[in-house]
Amino acid sequence: MDLTQIMFDLFGPYGGAGVVLVVFLAFLIDATVFPFLPEIFIILGFSYDPTPGFAVVLLIAAIIAECMGNTILYMIVEKYGLPQKLKNVMEKYVEFLIVSDERMMLVNRIAPMIPYSGAFISVIESWTLKRALFYVVIGCILKYGLVLSMSSLFYNYFSSDVAQWMMIGLVIIILIISFVASYIRKKRTFGDAA
């Protein structure tokens, strides 16, 4: 069965607007609730209309959703707080990372090491929401801009089915590299601390 058709069935009868909405929701869920593999959704969404204009619309939807998701978590933690023990663990964890300021939001696009980053933005006193969101935006532009550019390139040179499978393969490779980089960094960080 064609993955594109499955996704288009999920997008509903709303055409491009439905595609953008589903991509937006995938990114929002990923930023707020749990990892949701938004890379797959943006690639499948792009297959609906593989044009540069639609790629820009999808990229903007991804950026807005990422910023909203992080802001929602930030506001929840600001309002309701977290147990002090958990805050202490989060603060110590950030101290061990490759960078311990808001630039970690940029690094997090390559090597995902901070889940629920909106909560971290609230807990780490030296971090500001504005600066963290700036790095979220830059990270989205770099990572998803590259993914969409590669998608466009593949669609220009291959049939849509081949291009789609090549992009899914590329996303899987990116995810594997991200998880390996994250694992290696965690191992080095916490290995050095022991």
Task: Give a structural overview.
The structure is a single chain. By secondary structure, the protein is mainly alpha-helical. It is built from 9 helices and no strands. It has helices spanning 3-11, 15-32, 38-46, 52-80, 84-96, 104-110, 117-123, 129-157, 160-193. α4 (52-80) crosses α7 and α4 packs antiparallel against α8 (129-157). The longest helix has 34 residues, at 160-193. The protein is globular. The model has no long low-confidence stretch (mean pLDDT 87).
Secondary-structure topology with pairs:
Blueprint: H1 3-11, H2 15-32, H3 38-46, H4 52-80, H5 84-96, H6 104-110, H7 117-123, H8 129-157, H9 160-193
Report the span from N to C terminus. Answer: 49 Å
Task: Assign an overall shape.
Answer: globular
- Please count the beta strands (DSSP E, at least 2 residues each): 0
How many helical stretches?
9
Q: What kind of sheet is the major sheet?
A: none
Q: Helical amount among residues, as a percent range?
A: over 70%
Mean pLDDT: 87
SSE series: HHHHHHHHH
